[in-house]
Amino acid sequence: MTKSKHQWNILVGALILVFLFGMIFPFFWILITSFKPDGEVFGNGAFRIFAQHPTLHAYYEVLFNKDILVSVKNSFIVATTTTVYIIVIATLAAYAISRFHFWGKNLLLGLILAVSMFPQMIVVGPVYNMFLHLHLTNSYAVVLPYSTITLPIAVWILVTHFNEIPLALEESAKIDGATPIQILYKIVFPLAAPGVFTTAIIVFIAAWNEFLLTITLNSDADYHTVPVAISFLRTQFQILWSEVSAATIIVTIPTLIIVLLFQKKIVSGLTSGGVKE
């Protein structure tokens, strides 16, 4: 039995290593490709781990000639704005769903989730026509349709966390004369802070990586976000893979720093609403 268990542990460990390799290898290959000149990306040296003539030319190009930092600024503005207004709306909606008893609550939650299941290709056409008539294309108003991607999951996460907060705390606050808004922002919101924080991070990353809506609604390069800007790192006949890799490394740094700094809060926020006491 012990030998069989040992063999099973070895097999599981090997599968985990294979899985980790499959997850990490693409990022590693992008990193080393960013230091290769264009001539070594393809051809005989394409599979060489270390470049024969390593260079920072791709980083120089994307930073100073391709204005990738402008796209980083646009992504930061769009992602931050989306996060703020989505958290406010999702907090109010989730609190109402969690605390008020009404017919069709579960149906409402199902409809909210169904919104996120609509393919973006179906949604983007009507959204583009509406933005065109309202003269909102080529602007930061692109944050408005981002709600179709981020709001449903934000509401679902926050409903779970609000359900875990005892009603006795709110009833005590009512006895002391607190208004519903005061109860929400002085009692419920602080207690649900891990879930709110986790939701904010998830919304920020989703908005940061969004591609289809931005490329459709903002054709002006001055409003391109990071994913769109990277997609234009090409010539008529060639994709500039070294520059694509360098830009990918640069724009991954902000989200990587956020996750590393707040990983404990993210994990606690994802797990704190998962156990009923």
Provide tags for this entry.
277 residues, mainly alpha, MetI-like fold, disordered C terminus
CATH class: Mainly Alpha
- Give the rounded overall mean pLDDT: 83
CATH homologous superfamily classification: MetI-like
Secondary structure class reads mainly alpha
Q: Count of helices?
A: 14
The figure for the number of domains is 1
Main location: membrane
Protein name: Carbohydrate ABC transporter permease
Membrane topology: Multi-pass membrane protein
Transmembrane segments: 12-32, 76-95, 107-128, 140-162, 183-208, 239-262
What does this entry look like structurally?
By secondary structure, the protein is mostly helical. The chain has a single domain, classed as MetI-like fold, CATH 1.10.3720.10. The protein contains 14 helices and no strands. The two termini are 37 Å apart. One of its GO terms (biological process) is transmembrane transport. Keywords: Cell membrane, Membrane, Transmembrane, Transmembrane helix, Transport.
What are the SSEs and their pairings?
Blueprint: H1 2-33, H2 38-41, H3 57-65, H4 68-99, H5 105-117, H6 120-133, H7 147-163, H8 167-175, H9 180-191, H10 193-209, H11 212-217, H12 226-231, H13 241-261, H14 263-271
Helix pairs in contact: 1-13, 3-13, 4-7, 4-10, 5-7, 7-10, 8-9, 10-14
Membrane topology: Multi-pass membrane protein
Organism: Sporolactobacillus shoreae
GO biological process, one term: transmembrane transport
Write a concise synopsis of the structure shown:
The protein is an all-alpha fold and 277 residues long.
